[in-house]
UniProtKB/TrEMBL annotation:
Catalyzes the transfer of the enolpyruvyl moiety of phosphoenolpyruvate (PEP) to the 5-hydroxyl of shikimate-3-phosphate (S3P) to produce enolpyruvyl shikimate-3-phosphate and inorganic phosphate. One of its GO terms (cellular component) is cytoplasm. The lineage of its organism: Bacteria, Pseudomonadati, Pseudomonadota, Gammaproteobacteria, Oceanospirillales. This is 3-phosphoshikimate 1-carboxyvinyltransferase. Its EC number is 2.5.1.19. It holds the Pfam family PDH_C. CDD domains: EPSP_synthase.
Length: 770
């Protein structure tokens, strides 16, 4: 594993008070990071680790294990010259240790910093105030979220903190230098350091750690009591083992935690009991639907936490540091033949869940995109109390709660990389009775949300954004919305849809005028759900206060995903490819129009309509392409397709000119810049402009089979469409194309690699070393 090796902390003498699993593992991790390792070399680093523990045997064991240099059972014998004191005693022992420390702390180094590892923080802050008279500014409270059911120094593990979080809970007047030193201590042990206030820490831990421990202790104890001879455990299978592993944890430590964090634990337990009572009633009544809804929600939440929530910005960045990012290596050449079906349309998938959730009745969705973006939307509605079954092979069942049936979510709604989710949610949530917070990943956090927040405010919504109108969005519910007439300054379906969704909750009419046609899936689906949306020319409007009734939704394949293979086939001699069941909504077919203008041999077959959206099979064969001036009215109709179209342009003869596409600068990356950088790497001549680009394609050689540009190393900037565009570029490259930072392909196109291989590309994924 490629990890970033952090330097050992710059401390002279670290004193660990309490040499158990946690303290011992910290010593072991510091040793492994090189702290105090170079004892002999005069120029080397000479830090020492001392430990204090009431059990002299533990000290001897710690010295024998090479974890500490020395130790004692008495604190006053060790504190001399200590630069960093780590209190690693059980929570309830903290106060007496702090009282002892307060009596001798003046013998420590003048710049001594004190920290602790206790699992609850409010109680320890109280203990500190009692011991020192106030919270010292050089005391940084902290909590490593790591442990094991084992205890004692013998179980010390140098890797215990690697890739685990440590939460520091500074006070407003905590000395920043002290914070920095405690942070360095934990980073050296491989942990990721986060900050939180004390109250929030205790609530979060009550739910994520203390409650599960309580349940595990209770379950094992209940079963053990029922079966004095413990016969029953002989038959215990994996489920029991998995659920109860933590019941083997240190009883004293856990008693202390429950005493110290009583209130937060009780609140968590109340919620849990209510949940169990609901399930009990469902079991009692044989209410299979209710059980299924709960289990489905839980099962998906569990997967979601692993695959998505773990990817919150800090986590994703952290994981990248630890494991490296995902990289594609694409060999030059290859063919493009076959019949494939790309995954469901992202825009329609988002909307199917949103409208399905607000409808009366049950919405059955087919062809749902199981990509991270639309799954984030699905999860957000689960967090607002909507029972959603699936997705199972693209099938989702949404049990609508009606226009006013959403429940306040327990925490912020995390929508990952999905601009569509954030902007549409903003409108929908502005009309709710409760407050919400919308957050997203690092890329989304940079994208402009003022474009929705401003008109929503004009409707009467109250929304706070971060600086510059960026996420997170805090939406204050319970505001009476009024319909407005809005002249959109940019052609954005997301802004239009956001306002229409808010308009459902507004008094009177909400009208949106678009400067150019944008995708109209929201309007179509609203109509499909029985909600009248009017359109006259460039303006659409609806009347607030109506209801939605559930209707089945058949999501066509996403033309934006199909585009990568359309371009792949268009540029590759000998190709012949059919893409089945692709949505060809007139507001989305800019790519078809543009490719045909460039001379592509692209035909629509088997055209028909599913659930209000036109679909067709797209049949494409190789034909020489010619550069064109892209008609400006096609730009919003192909807005997501330009990364791939730029690759078509690089393979066309002559110049392709794009103008009026400044929106590309605020997508998942600045797509004009990202593509220009990549084209430069491949040696494709181009001129980048503020609102577009000129791409100069070389004349085709005789026979048209040669390379059109070089290979090279491309940075996708974490943008799924940049990554996929350069993957298909390899078909005509002179050498391998290596694309960095490709994990986000999963946001819109799960299975891209498999389909690309199936049609004839040669590509592999690997972890980038960091
Ligand atoms: C989308 C609209 C487009 C598009 C995005 C999806 C939608 O954004 O780029 O991928 O589902 O409404 P804008 O409307 O902001 O251009």
């Amino acid at each position: 594993m490629a990890g970033i090796v952090k330097p050992p902390p710059d401390e002279r003498r670290i004193l660990i008070v309490g040499l158990g699993l946690i303290g011992g593992s910290l010593a072991a991790a510091l040793r492994a990071a090189g702290f105090g390792a170079d004892k002999e070399g005069a120029a080397g680093f000479r830090g020492t680790i001392l430990a204090c523990d009431p059990d002299a045997d533990e000290i001897v064991r710690g010295i024998e294990m090479g974890l500490i240099d020395n130790g004692d059972t008495r604190l006053e014998a060790l504190v001399e010259g200590a630069s960093l004191v780590v209190l690693a005693v059980p929570v309830l022992a903290m106060e007496s240790v702090m009282v002892q420390l307060a009596g001798v702390i003046d013998r420590a180094a003048p710049d001594v910093v004190v920290t602790d590892v206790g699992s609850t923080k409010a109680a320890i802050r109280e203990a500190a105030v009692a011991a020192f008279g106030r919270m010292p500014t050089n005391l940084v409270l902290g909590h490593p979220i790591a442990g094991s059911e084992k205890s004692g120094v013998a179980a010390a593990d140098a890797g215990l903190y690697a890739r685990h979080k440590v939460i520091l809970t500074p006070e407003p007047d905590t000395d920043p230098a002290a914070m920095a030193r405690v942070r360095a201590l934990w980073e050296a042990s491989g942990a990721e350091v986060l900050e939180m206030d004390v109250a929030r820490h205790d609530q979060v831990l009550a739910r994520t750690s203390h409650l599960p421990h309580l349940l595990a202790f209770s379950l094992v104890d209940t079963l053990a009591r029922q079966d004095e001879r413990l016969e029953i455990f002989r038959y215990a299978a994996g489920g029991f083992r998995d659920f109860t592993r933590i019941a083997g944890s240190d009883p004293v430590m856990w008693r202390d935690i429950f005493v110290a964090n009583r209130d937060a634990v009780l609140a968590a337990l109340d919620d849990f009991e209510a949940g169990v009572a609901r399930l009990r009633r469902a079991v009692e009544r044989g209410d299979g639907d209710a059980m299924l809804a709960t289990f489905d929600r839980a099962s998906h939440a569990r997967h979601y936490f692993e695959s998505l929530l773990n990817q919150t910005s800090y986590q994703a960045e952290y994981q990248m540091q630890q494991h490296g990012k995902l990289r594609y290596r694409v060999s030059p050449g290859g063919g493009v033949t076959g019949r494939i079906r790309v995954p469901g349309d992202k825009s329609i998938s988002h909307r199917s869940i949103m409208l399905g959730a607000l409808a009366d009745g049950v919405t059955e969705v087919k062809g749902f995109l199981e990509g991270e973006d639309s799954l984030a939307t699905l999860q957000a509605f689960r967090e607002m109390g909507v029972a959603i079954e699936g997705p199972h092979q693209g099938r989702v069942t949404v049990h609508g709660v009606g226009m006013h049936g959403l429940k306040p979510p327990a925490g912020p709604l995390y929508v990952g990389n999905a601009g569509t989710a954030m902007r549409l949610f903003a409108g929908l949530l502005a009309g709710q009775a409760f407050d919400t917070e919308l957050t997203g990943d690092a890329s989304l956090t940079k994208r402009p949300m003022g474009r929705v927040a401003d008109p929503l405010r004009a409707m009467g919504a109250e929304i706070d954004t971060a600086e510059g109108g960026r996420p997170p969005l805090h939406i204050h519910g319970g505001k009476a919305l009024k319909g407005i007439t809005y002249n959109m300054p940019m052609a954005s379906a997301q802004v239009k849809s956001c306002l229409l969704l808010a308009g459902l909750y507004a008094e009177g009419e909400t009208r949106v005028r678009e400067p150019a046609p944008t995708r109209d899936h929201t309007e179509r689906m609203l109509q499909g759900f029985g909600y009248t949306v009017h359109r006259e020319g460039d303006t659409c409007w609806l009347q607030g206060g109506g209801r939605l009734s559930a209707a089945p939704i058949d999501v066509p394949s996403d033309i934006s995903s199909a585009t990568f293979f359309l371009v792949a086939a268009a540029i590759t001699p000998g190709s012949d490819l059919v893409l089945e069941h692709v949505g060809i909504n007139p507001t989305r077919i800019g790519v078809i129009n543009i490719l045909q203008l460039m001379g592509a041999d692209l035909r629509l077959e088997n055209e028909h309509e599913v659930g209000g959206e036109p679909v067709a099979d797209l049949h494409i064969r190789h034909a020489p392409l010619t550069g064109i001036d892209i008609p400006v009215e096609q730009v919003p109709l192909a807005i997501d397709e330009f990364p791939a179209l730029f690759i078509a342009a690089a393979n066309a003869e002559g110049v392709t000119r794009l103008r009026g596409a400044e929106e590309l600068r605020v997508k998942e990356s600045d797509r004009l810049q990202a593509m220009a950088n990549g084209l430069a790497t491949l040696g494709v001549e181009h001129v980048l402009l503020e609102d577009g680009i000129d791409i100069v394609g070389r004349p085709e050689e005789e026979g048209g089979e040669g390379a059109r540009y070089a290979g090279g190393n491309i940075d996708s900037l974490g943008d799924h469409r940049i990554a996929m565009a350069f993957a298909i570029a390899a078909l005509r490259a002179g050498g391998e194309i290596v694309i960095d930072d490709c994990a986000n392909v999963a946001t819109s196109f799960p299975g891209f690699i498999d389909l690309a291989r199936r049609v004839g590309l040669t590509l592999e994924e690997q972890q980038e070393a960091s």
